[in-house]
Amino acid sequence: MTIIATQSLTKTYGGGVTALSELTVDVEAGVIGLVGANGAGKSTFIKIMLGLTAPTSGEVRVFGIDPVTETDKVRARVGYMPENDCLPPDVSASEFVTHLGRLSGLPKTAARERASEALRHVGLYEERYRQIGGYSTGMKQRVKLAQALVHDPDLLLLDEPTNGLDPAGRDAMLNLVHRIGNEFGISVVVCSHLLGEVERICDSLIAIEGGRLLRADRISAMTAASDVLAVEVSEGTDELADILVQRELTVTREGRMLLVPLTNETAYDEILRAVAELDLPLHRLDQRRHRVAELFTTKETADV
Amino acid sequence: MSDAGVIHDIGYQRYEGPRLGRSAVFGAIYQHGLRAAFGLGRSAKAKIFPWLVVGIVLLVAVINAAVKAQANIILFDYFSFDDTMSWLVIFFVAIVAPELVSRDMRSGVLPLYFSRPLRAFDYIGAKFAALATAVFLLLGVPQLIMFLGGAFTTKKGASGVWNELLDLLPGWGYSVLWALLFASISLLVASITGKRAFAAGGIVAVFLMTAPIVGVLSILPSSTSQHLAGLASPMSLLTGVQAWLRGRNDLGIDVGDFGVIYGIELFCLVFACLLLLLARYRKVASL
């Protein structure tokens, strides 16, 4: 099911700054990573989907609804977790999330029930009756996530949910997002400038840079054809490379290693045989899954 | 966080219940704002000031009713009660208006509001209604106490109560005008800054700095400038409107034939403040 569809979406701000340029993408349900450097246009894309700002040209549909004309319908089905600090310090998480639930149109008692449920799902129990001002950054991020969940949206838009968290907190937050996407049946768009962290939990990825689409695909499609064998010998690397090329294998050098795409079953044996024939001391022969980051390295080295 | 939670984990449940429209959302913000105005659902610290002001106005009303009943001396009627309490009303809105709007701005909570199905109009309308209601309650409840005091001690039976009621109702009407004007001006000032102390100072300044202007204008030798002097300050503007509607010229401000201008200015001022607020929040809402 397509949940988000854009057609040459362009957004130019007043000062001539182009935040999004001709973005055309179809997004399937699931956990979607929206990656790009700071200023790549991720937040602008989210704001357009929420109907907070109108695109300069082009079209966008969320669940088939146009957020520009039918803003309320879209917003009722979407939960938004902003990047910045957005919590008042002098109320309890429970009250705060209940209030926001009511602002999403839930009746009073339902708002209270769903608020405590949402807070429980993000891992806040007794703490929820304490004032938010005394919370740690990790707990605050959880409250922000809970308020996005309180009205049971069909889509969550999370802007940098792991911002400011320590490594353990990051893992916990990512696991939570993964659970929401897989167990709760809610699609999630996770914005991040850290590709390595979203690829772990996402089904598909949208990479944008300077407002342009770099690539949008399912993670499985991105990594499928990219398994490689890394071979390292302590001497005679060049001879080995030559002999492998003669046997019609594609060889690329990376430092002291040779990388051979694992195109068929026999590649493994071919390499072993070649090493044995040359009588070289083999250090390493292992299969590597390409990390998605490598697909973008040429363009995104600075940020990945 | 605690592992015990896993045992009780019954999984995520989708919400199948009703989703209410914008009017319910408006009601929720209104109710939340009205409670916040009196510090309900907030820390004890937030309750001190509003209830101090409420305590003073109630005390004045009770004393007024008691003196009237015992000695038959009228300290204030329903109208002059509002005029006399003007300082307290100023301090009340100076504390409450920033509590209603500056606080949201300061904590950055607005993006959460405006990513939900509500508009700048709903937000501002509900906040304005909440503050206006709070100011009206601040003045109207003591007036009610004065009425009850008068009604229970009247010696003319039912007609005495009726006369007292006929005095109370225009008094309440006057309090409504106070509530509308003070709520609109103070919200507009408070919406400029997220810092509560600055907002409070700004509100007090707007109300108090205008009073000397009235003083200066009213001693100018031109009778027109004397008649129009009251337009310069919100408090004297309201007194002027009262003088116009009641046809009195002994209220400290002589509006002469310009009474209707006071009425027009009151209406335009409230309207302009609300429009400016709306424009301000349109911008905020689109981030």
TrEMBL record, chain A:
InterPro entries: AAA+_ATPase (IPR003593), ABC_transporter-like_ATP-bd (IPR003439), P-loop_NTPase (IPR027417). It comes from the Bacteria. Keywords: ATP-binding, Nucleotide-binding, Transport. GO terms for molecular function: ATP binding. Residues 4-235 form the ABC transporter domain. Belongs to the ABC transporter superfamily. This is ABC transporter ATP-binding protein.
TrEMBL record, chain B:
Signal peptide: none annotated. Keywords: Membrane, Transmembrane, Transmembrane helix. The chain crosses the membrane at residues 48-65, 85-102, 123-152, 172-190, 197-220, 260-279. It comes from the Bacteria. This is ABC transporter permease.
